[in-house]
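Researcher: I'd like a candidate sequence for this fold, 352 residues long. If you have to choose between options at a position, lean toward the conservative one.
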């Protein structure tokens, strides 16, 4: 049984392929039949039919389910910030991202993606983390994601601090073997330890390398920047075979050519996308725990994610949104949009 709790103030009608939206959440005319069966595909309700303030607080106002069975993709919250080193608050990220996602719609005209006509998608609520024990939380996350990926469902995760990517990748590697990684972040997150601890948000990818969860020749890190305690802070990453793209090498330019190179690097291997919101300049995303100046722009973030179309993406996350430092809600709004773009970039999504 998944340790998942429904987000917001109510849950859907329960597990099962045929689970229907919460009453009043979705106009029945918006549900479309699945090609291979009579099970309906879920669609966010149109604001022309249902006011944005109406309904359960789920991602894009999608139905909330407790089982991944029958889903092609699902949004999952991991409200954990016990691994944070600076400003806390990312435990509130999933809820705030869901709130801001009411502005999203069903079609991406810029890319031609029709995700809700291609995939059956729902919100699986939140993993029931243990805020008092980081190791136990990681165990719970890994167990929950093993069940999700075993059901053939691609997870799109709302974080949560970056510690959560480590147990998610443990679950991914159990099914796919070592995976490629597109990591968008201000920081490499490959520190070995801090204050004697090896498990925190600055070390998830070091732990992944230690356990052989990554195909290191197919790892790319984009947006890296910030001051350091050494003059060669990326030596470890490059020694492992990672491609490290500094933020300053992205300034004032389109990243479309870079993503063409990344697609060639990744090939057809299963890859995971991990996007830390602090990759973006704090002028655009101030609500995060460890902001660094001179970061990427939202348009560059779109180029990165849209550049993943055609890749074998097996999972995604968007982490480190800290609502207490996001007074306008713009950071969470940006995060919600990027998660929708990730959904649009998944395999099997029809584009026109």
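Model: Candidate sequence:
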């Amino acid at each position: 049984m998944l340790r998942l709790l429904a987000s917001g103030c109510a849950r859907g009608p329960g597990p099962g392929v045929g689970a229907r939206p919460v009453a009043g959440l979705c106009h029945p005319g918006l549900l479309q039949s699945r090609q291979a069966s009579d099970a309906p595909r879920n669609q966010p309700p149109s604001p022309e039919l249902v006011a944005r303030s109406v309904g359960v607080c789920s991602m894009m106002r999608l139905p909330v389910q407790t089982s991944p069975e029958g889903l092609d993709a699902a949004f999952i919250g991991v409200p954990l910030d016990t691994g944070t080193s600076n400003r806390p608050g990312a435990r509130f990220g999933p809820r705030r991202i869901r709130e801001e996602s009411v502005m999203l719609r069903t079609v991406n005209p810029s890319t031609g993606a029709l995700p809700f006509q291609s995939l059956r998608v729902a919100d699986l609520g939140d993993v029931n983390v243990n805020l008092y024990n980081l190791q136990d939380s990681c165990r719970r996350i890994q167990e929950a994601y093993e069940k999700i990926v075993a059901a053939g469902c691609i997870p799109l995760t709302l974080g949560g601090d970056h510690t959560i990517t480590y147990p998610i990748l443990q679950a991914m590697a159990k099914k796919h073997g070592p995976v490629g990684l597109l990591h968008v972040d201000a920081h490499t997150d490959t520190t070995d330890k801090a204050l004697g601890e090896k498990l925190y948000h600055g070390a998830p990818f070091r732990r992944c390398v230690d356990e052989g969860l990554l195909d290191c020749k197919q790892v790319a890190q984009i947006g890296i920047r910030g001051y350091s305690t050494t003059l060669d802070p990326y030596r470890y990453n490059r020694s492992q075979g990672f491609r490290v793209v500094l933020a300053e090498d992205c300034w004032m330019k389109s990243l479309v050519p870079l993503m063409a190179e990344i697609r060639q690097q990744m090939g057809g291997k299963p890859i995971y996308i991990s996007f830390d919101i602090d990759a973006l300049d704090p002028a655009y995303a101030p609500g995060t725990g460890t902001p660094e100046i001179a970061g990427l722009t939202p348009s560059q973030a779109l180029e990165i994610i849209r550049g993943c179309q055609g890749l074998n993406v097996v999972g995604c996350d968007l982490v480190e949104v800290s609502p207490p430092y996001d007074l306008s809600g713009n950071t969470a709004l940006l995060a919600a949009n990027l998660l929708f773009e990730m959904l649009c970039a998944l395999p099997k999504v029809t584009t026109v």
